[in-house]
Amino acid sequence: MGIIRAVAGLPLAPLRGVYWVAEQIETQVDREMNDPGVLRRKIDEAERAYERGEIGEDERDAIQEDALARLTGRTPGVGHG
Question: I want to staple 60 with a disulfide (CB 3.0 to 4.6 A). Which of 39, 50, 78, 79 is the partner?
């Protein structure tokens, strides 16, 4: 019975491979997006861009809020009054 199931499942093998690759990419992106070093650099880059006049105060604050939210594990924009 195992051989029949294996042969019947062969047409789905490429889809399983694509799904596995997608999961690996998602895991790596999530890891990088929440890496404290990467987030700290984003905060610093936003501050430097603001000081050079490349972005406004609102954009700088939004970038920094998002990075800090990721660092602390909270939802951006929630809990502010």
Answer: 50
